[in-house]
Design brief:
Low-confidence stretches: 1-34
Largest sheet: 3 strands, antiparallel
Number of domains: 1
Structural class: mainly alpha
Number of helices: 5
Bound molecules: zinc ion
Strand order of the largest sheet: 1-2-3
Strand content: 5-15%
Mean pLDDT: 81
Number of strands: 3
Length: about 160
């Protein structure tokens, strides 16, 4: 977070470079900025968010991206889905800041649902099963809570914390 805040300070001192993002020239001037600031991190006034909400979202993003990488599913499409989910959840957690502790749990479930529609099952269970068992994904438990874990529902056991596959 130190690096992020320092960078935000730099951006402010240089005026308002975020204005360059809008309009038809996005492709020419946006990439550097887009790489630094995902859309969900910038509010409607083109300010980068700071504070507990952003910390919770960035933390959830890191956990989910780690687990995508652990299943070799961290494609550009998947990362874009994660950022869409974070953008939607940012509103939710701003309305209910006490829910910040639950963001990782919710984001993992949201990303799992969207990947299933678009990319495929994630994360596939790697535990030994009977040969004729269907491949199946792990599930997040609890449905809404802190310290979410991935579980295999067939075995009824915890596989790993979210972010530690
Ligand atoms: Zn399993």
């Amino acid at each position: 977070m130190v690096a992020l805040e320092a960078a935000a300070g730099d951006a402010e001192r240089q005026g308002d470079p975020v204005q360059l993002v809008v309009g038809d020239v996005t492709d020419q001037v946006a990439p550097q900025l887009a790489a630094k600031w995902p859309d969900w991190l910038i509010d409607q006034h083109r300010h980068v968010h700071n504070g507990a909400v952003t910390d919770a979202l960035l933390s959830a993003r890191a956990l989910v991206l780690h687990d995508l990488g652990a299943r070799a599913m961290d494609s550009a499409r998947s990362v874009s889905i994660v950022d869409d989910v974070l953008s939607e959840r940012r509103w939710w957690v701003e309305q209910w800041p006490d829910g910040a502790a639950y963001v990782a749990c919710l984001v993992a479930q949201d990303v799992q649902e969207k990947l299933l529609e678009d990319v495929g099952r994630w994360p596939l269970c790697g535990l030994p099963h009977e040969e004729d068992d269907e491949p199946h994904e792990l599930r997040v438990t609890p449905d809404l809570g802190e310290n979410p874990h991935w579980v295999c529902e067939e075995h009824g056991c915890v596989v790993a914390p979210v972010g530690a596959l």
